[in-house]
Amino acid sequence: MDQLDLFGAPEEETKTHFEIQNGEYIHIPGFFNKAKADKFFQSLLQNIEWKQESMNMYGKEIKFPRLTAWYGENDKPYSFSGITLNPNPWNKELLEIKEKIETEAEVTFNSVLLNRYRDGNDSISWHTDAEKELGKNPVIASVNFGAERKFQLKHIETGEKVELLLKHGSLLVMKGELQHYWKHQVPKTKAKVAERINLTFRVIK
């Protein structure tokens, strides 16, 4: 199997559980209904402390092509891509979202990384969520509000690809060995797209 194309996945209550080489994931396109998703999207736009982080590369300061924020219930920092983030305290909307997805993921999360993609030029390149703070075989729950964007997975050893269209109100739960064997990205697009907010809930050890 070279590539899975799941753009035709049905909406609303449909839940699909996929077991792939060295990992598994659950995809629920309509996890939050439109009314709830609209409410959360507007609230997150207005109430999250968004920042544009930057990193040093070859002696130059490079700004991330997206806005980010880090929230959690402890004082443990999270480091990735050469930066370290200290958590803001949970707000009402984040706790509401967290409580809802924990039932599905069967995990109690203590932190969330938010990424805000302002248009098609904003993106995140190939990476894994396998930092030491996340422990072995971390469960990552990804919630999406706003514009639909492609989400791609690529096996580090075989090159096998999986491609999903993550829609407004969708939930993606990545489990098992996936973070140790698969990279993922949200690529840039030349298509005219509106803003998108992605939340990846996780457990910091």
From TrEMBL:
Keywords: Dioxygenase, DNA damage, DNA repair, Iron, Magnesium, Metal-binding, Oxidoreductase. InterPro entries: AlkB-like, AlkB-like_sf, ALKBH3, Oxoglu/Fe-dep_dioxygenase_dom. It comes from the Bacteria. Its cofactor is Fe(2+). GO terms for biological process: DNA alkylation repair. One of its GO terms (molecular function) is metal ion binding. PROSITE patterns: FE2OG_OXY (PS51471). It holds the Pfam family 2OG-FeII_Oxy_2. Residues 108-205 form the Fe2OG dioxygenase domain. This is Alpha-ketoglutarate-dependent dioxygenase AlkB.
